[in-house]
Structures are given as C-alpha cells and as structure tokens.
Design a protein that fits this description.
With about 120 residues, the chain is mainly β. The protein is built from no helices and 11 strands.
C-alpha cells in the first residue's frame, strides 16, 4: 500500500484546511486508516481514524468538534477537514493505513500544517 498526502499549508488561527491521503496498491487489504501528527519535540499522536468495516471513527480529544475524518472508497482517498484551527495544531500530519488483519502498517511522507496566531 502506498500513501500520498496533500493539502497542508499555512493558515491563520480560526481558519480551515483539508488534507487528503490517496492510497494505491493493495487497498482492498486496508482495515483502518488514520491521521497522525507530530509537532517539534513531541511524540507522534493519533488525530483521528476511520475503520473500513462499518466506517466508525475516533478522534483525539483535542480535535473533537473541529476536525472531521472521512473516506471515499471509490477514490481510495481519505480526508481530514480541519476547522477552527489553533496554533497548537501546527505539526507534520501523516497518513497511516493498517492492513491484512493489522499485520502491516504503512505511512505517507507527511504534510506540514502551520497555524499562525
């Protein structure tokens, strides 16, 4: 599975961005896809994920009510709509997929999101 993110950039606090993650390869084997982020000097953390079976989603408490994860299975693309952005949302955002019964994990190259105050 190959993952390619897009949509990062610089935005003012209170603004919005939408990230996209296009998957290719053995996409039929994907069990769950998610967005992680890593700020300078901090550990990588889960932002949100969405399960292939049933479409259930999970969000980090820090983004609940502001971010929305979605997936277009026909396009093999996952999205993260980010609204009401805060400076603390500044990080490199990574797309992740776990596949084949969660045996394998795949990562995208990351996309920078910078929120100015």
């Amino acid at each position: 599975v190959q993952l390619v993110e897009s949509g990062g950039g610089l935005v003012q606090a209170g603004g919005s961005l939408r990230l996209s993650c296009a998957a290719s390869g053995s996409t039929f084997s994907i069990d769950v896809m998610g967005w992680y982020r890593q700020a300078p000097g901090k550990q990588r953390e889960l932002v949100a994920n969405i399960f292939t079976s049933g479409g259930s989603t999970n969000y980090a408490d820090s983004v609940k009510g502001r971010f929305t994860i979605s997936r277009d299975n026909a396009k093999n693309t996952m999205y993260l709509q980010m609204n009401s952005l805060k400076p603390e949302d500044t990080a490199v955002y990574y797309c992740n997929a776990r596949a084949a019964g969660y045996r394998y994990a795949y990562w995208g190259q990351g996309t920078q999101v910078t929120v100015s105050s």
